[in-house]
Design brief:
The chain is an alpha/beta fold. The protein has helices spanning 4-10, 12-24, 40-51, 67-75, 88-100, 112-117, 133-139, 143-146, 157-180, 196-207, 219-227, 235-240, 281-285, 332-350, 365-379; strands at 31-35, 55-59, 79-80, 105-108, 127-130, 150-152, 188-192, 211-215, 244-247, 268-271, 290-293, 300-305, 310-314, 359-362. The strands form 2 sheets. The protein has a 7-stranded parallel beta sheet with strand order 3-2-1-4-5-6-14, sandwiched between helices. β7, α10 (196-207) and β8 form a beta-alpha-beta unit. The longest helix has 24 residues, at 157-180. It is globular and about 65 Å long. The protein starts with a helix and ends in a 12-residue tail after the last helix.
Length: 391
């Protein structure tokens, strides 16, 4: 696992942002409540916010918290509520404890904090950010109840190409290889969903010599997948022909127990979406056709059906690139960009530059431009000294 020093020194854009924050103190006197995957890159972001004057209260997302990161953050004075949570009830309690501190800003990852805020709203909340497509989908129906600025990081074009297409595609392939130790050469891979993440996943598996098909319900995206060189079969054929199926839609119930008759013997199922609802793992495990299943071990579980077919599930249906042994997630560089967007968006809300009617909307174009200019300037210049990390 890369050390915190390695990650922090690699986040060059966050380091520059931290220098600005330390001088300007945009979060002075404010509390930021965060619910996010707790791993070295997110720890770097939280400490940058603290350098801007924030009192940071954080909890992790379900299943993905790394214990070493918890210890590090606590040693640095960040309040972290809970440990690694494996069940929704414990996770819910941790989220509500964060909100009980009445944060001025929320840094959300999946919509969990904002949805619970609505159970017990308070006037001092200024607004916040939401990281994911899944979170945006949950918050759009309640935006009139939130009535505060909420900027969706995933809707930034920078996040779309830098993290979703380039980094997610790479990290999902890397995680598949790490968990299974299987070759992809000649394997039939079906990618479900052809948004920014799906495009990257398809491209990386194709570059690893897999035969890639895409199942996509949107006719325009399906056409795009065809033009990109992938097979675009109907759903039954897409599932039945696959040796590997990767879901990447952000929507629930993409693969359910009703699909068991379609799945081929030996198929491997993986989810790249934020929430563990794209593959209905509980439904698969309890289906009458499942005679036995192995205990989850190092991110891998295998089900044996009554007819003898075997189906394997990676990471229990959780986000595969942050699960299993040695979970690394997306590349440092992509997260450096995405988390700088997070920091700058929170800064804009804290300083009153975003009106209340900008609720569950994309990152403003001027922030995208600011971050893009800063990254290009750093990429074209000299590297900063290693003794100037982001925290």
């Amino acid at each position: 696992m890369p050390t915190m020093e390695w990650v922090a020194s690699s986040c060059r854009l966050l380091a520059a942002t931290a220098t600005d924050f330390e001088r300007e103190r945009p979060f002075s006197g404010m509390r930021i409540g965060a619910a996010i995957h707790l791993e070295p890159k997110t720890a770097t972001l939280l400490l940058v916010l603290a350098r801007g004057g924030a009192d940071v209260i954080a909890t992790g997302n379900l299943q993905t918290t790394q214990e070493a990161t918890l210890t590090f953050l606590r040693d640095q004075g960040v309040t972290v509520i809970g440990d690694r949570t494996l069940d929704p009830q414990t996770q819910d309690a941790c989220l509500r404890q964060v909100l009980a501190t009445r944060p001025d800003l929320l840094l959300d990852n999946g919509g969990d904090l904002f949805l619970r805020y609505l159970d017990d709203p308070y006037e001092s909340l200024l607004g916040g950010t939401e990281e994911t497509t899944s979170g945006r989908a949950q918050l759009v129906p309640v935006r009139t109840r939130i009535k505060r600025p909420v900027l969706v990081i995933n809707d930034s074009p920078i996040k779309q190409f830098a993290e979703n297409t380039h980094a997610v595609g790479q990290s999902v392939l890397e995680s598949f290889l790490r968990i299974t130790n299987r070759a992809t050469n000649g394997q039939r891979v079906t990618v479900v969903g052809y948004g920014a993440c799906g495009r990257g996943i398809a491209k990386n598996f194709a570059n690893a010599h897999a035969r890639v098909a895409v199942w996509e319900t949107d006719p325009v995206r399906r056409l795009e997948a065809l033009f990109d060189g992938y097979a675009v079969p109907d759903r039954p054929e897409a599932l039945a022909s696959a040796d590997i199926i990767v879901t990447s839609t952000g929507n629930p119930g993409i693969l359910t127990a009703d699909d068991l008759p379609l799945l081929s013997d030996g198929v491997i199922l993986a989810n790249a979406g934020h929430l563990p609802w794209e593959i209905d793992v509980p439904g698969l495990l309890t289906h009458p056709a499942v005679l036995k299943c192995t205990e989850p071990a190092d991110g891998l579980q295998t089900l044996t059906l009554s007819g003898g077919a075997r189906i394997s599930i990676l990471a229990g249906g959780h986000m595969v690139n942050l699960s299993g042994p040695r979970p690394l997630g997306n590349s440092v560089e992509s997260m450096d960009l995405g988390f700088t967007l997070q920091a700058r968006c929170l800064e804009a809300i804290a300083t009153g530059r975003i009106p209340a009617d900008q609720c569950v909307v994309p990152v403003p174009a001027e922030i995208d431009a600011q971050v893009a200019r800063a990254y290009v300037a750093l990429a074209g210049g000299a590297r900063p000294p290693r003794h100037q990390p982001a925290y």
